[in-house]
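TA notes, week 10

Several of you asked for a full example with nothing omitted. So below is the full record: structure tokens for the whole chain, then the designed sequence directly under it. When grading your own attempts, check the secondary structure regions first.
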């Protein structure tokens, strides 16, 4: 779905609609800075010690990848009222590494109007964060609250 600058209500959406974000280039400095503040483990903060870790090298925190994903989603998924989360499931099938260039591909899986709150509905959105090789570094299945158009209650 592409309409530059447009914002969509629940009624404007269709199961299968897809969105693709711009890219975000990640380097070692970003990984280390984030990790020192929010996830200070050696495989995120020390390139030398990270060689001896489970990851066998510097890897971004999954939460860092999630934060980048969120930024890219906000820019690429044009729902009226923003992206209001009601829950999500997130997995990291592969580590995000220095010099990865990330982008997010999202697809609407389902749309469910609320039975009790007529001004909204829930959109189930699958978002795949991929690196420059097309490898999935994060999969997120989000329940998003999306506004409906003005309706008579």
């Amino acid at each position: 779905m592409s309409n530059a600058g447009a914002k969509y209500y629940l009624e404007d959406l269709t199961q299968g609609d897809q969105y693709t974000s711009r890219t975000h280039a990640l380097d070692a400095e970003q990984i280390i800075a984030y990790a020192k503040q929010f996830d200070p483990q050696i495989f995120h903060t020390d390139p030398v010690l990270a060689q001896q870790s489970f990851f066998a090298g510097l890897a971004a925190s999954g939460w860092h990848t999630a934060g980048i994903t969120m930024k890219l989603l906000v820019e690429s998924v044009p729902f009226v009222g923003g992206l209001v989360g009601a829950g999500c499931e997130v997995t990291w099938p592969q580590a995000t590494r220095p010099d990865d260039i990330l982008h997010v591909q999202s697809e609407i899986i389902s749309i469910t109007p609320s039975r009790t709150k007529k001004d909204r509905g829930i959109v189930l959105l699958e978002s795949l964060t991929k690196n420059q090789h097309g490898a999935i570094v994060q999969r997120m299945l989000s329940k998003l609250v999306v506004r409906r158009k003005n309706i008579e209650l």
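The chain has a mean pLDDT of 95. Use that as a sanity check on your answer.
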